[in-house]
Amino acid sequence: NQREIAIAIDGPAAAGKSTVAKMVAEKLGYIYIDTGAMYRALTMKALIERVDLEDENGLVELLGGTAITLEQSVNGQIVMLDDRDVTLDIRTNEVTNHVSYVAKHRKIRQEMVRRQQELASDRGVVMDGRDIGTHVLPEAEVKIFLVATVEERAKRRYEENLKKGFTSSMDELKEEIAQRDQIDSEREASPLLKAADAKEIDTTSLTIEQVAERILDEASQAITRQGR
Ligand code: CDP
Ligand code: CDP
User: Fold this and answer.
1) Residue 154: nearest ligand to its CA?
2) Measured in angstroms, how far is the CA atom of residue 182 from the centroid of ligand 2?
3) What global pTM score does this model have?
4) 203 lines ligand 2 (CB under 6 A)
5) From the alpha carbon of 13, which atom of ligand 2 is closest?
6) What are the residues facing 125 on neighbouring strands?
7) Fewest C-beta atoms under 10 Å: which of 17, 78, 201, 228?
8) ipTM of this model?
9) Percentage of the residues of the chain whose pLDDT score is greater than 70
10) pLDDT tens-place string over residues 93-141
11) What is the pLDDT along the chain (228 residues), one digit of tens a residue?
12) Has 198 been labeled as part of a binding site?
């Protein structure tokens, strides 16, 4: 469909990217691609196989023999690592606290970007991550950069954890988020950065619906332009 566009959503941890990306994709009937899940899956495998996370070539070799697929199901996205469903396993603290060390390697990013571009080759796609607007989909018709204060983001993770049945320390969450943002922003290879042509939305005091609404507005304008 000529009128289908690509929507890139970037931003720091817990800014609400995946939640609104899913909602926007559903509204438009587009596919949703969670690029963070791909880095998380590789990190999980590296931890299991005890590959040194500083060993870039070792990780490249590991990735070369690894299939990571994102399947759309009625219950949302399923992440497959080789033949195993790792949808929940890639969200553990263990993976969360190591993923940025894997994602900082240039050669790992090159291969991930190649795979992500292949997944998005059909348009009609909403993709979220850290480098989507800058590197993965530089031609995306809509680019969004979501931000929120670190306090608000820690609070969101805290509430998310409560729903899953465990209490976490707010200070620890804040520390974990700030540390991951720092590594992601300071790495040399495609760091977390707002693309020059991205629209920044501060979600600190917005509901999920309000954020989705704004992105859908941008999308419908872009779709109209596309149709001309
Ligand atoms: O959902 P959350 O904000 O916790 O993180 P995520 O989107 O699942 O991403 C996990 C990690 O993967 C990030 O902290 C980055 O280190 C890395 N990542 C990346 O480098 N580039 C992307 N396009 C997506 C994720
Ligand atoms: O993908 P990312 O790490 O950027 O964030 P997320 O996992 O989509 O969102 C983190 C949490 O914040 C989720 O539990 C959302 O329900 C909540 N939230 C939000 O995403 N946006 C708001 N405006 C308010 C809350």
Assistant:
1) 2
2) 19
3) 0.96
4) yes
5) 3
6) 6, 31
7) 228
8) 0.97
9) 99
10) 899 999 999 999 999 999 999 999 999 998 899 999 999 999 999 999 9
11) 568 999 999 999 999 999 999 999 999 999 999 999 999 999 999 999 999 999 999 999 999 999 999 998 887 889 999 999 999 999 998 999 999 999 999 999 999 999 999 999 988 999 999 999 999 999 999 999 999 999 999 999 999 989 988 888 999 999 999 999 999 999 999 999 999 999 999 999 999 999 999 999 999 999 999 877
12) no
The amino acid that residue 90 corresponds to is I
Residue 30 amino acid letter = Y
| Spacing, Cα 14 to ligand 2 middle (Å) | 5
- The CA–CA distances, whole Å, from 14 to 23, 106, 216 equal 16, 24, 20
Nearest atom, ligand 1, residue 18 CA: 1
Q: Is the CB of 18 under 6 A from ligand 2?
A: yes
203 marked as part of a ligand binding site? no
Residues in the chain: 228
The ligand 2 atom nearest the CA atom of 206: 23
Q: Which ligand is nearest to the CA of 96?
A: 1
Taken in order of first residue, the domains within the chain and their CATH numbers are 6-209 (3.40.50.300)
Give residues with Cβ within 8 angstroms of 3, minimum separation 6: 223, 226, 227
Q: Which two tokens stand for residue 16?
A: 């609400």
Evaluate whether 33 touches 125 at the Cβ level (below 8 Å): yes
Residue 18 in marked binding region: yes
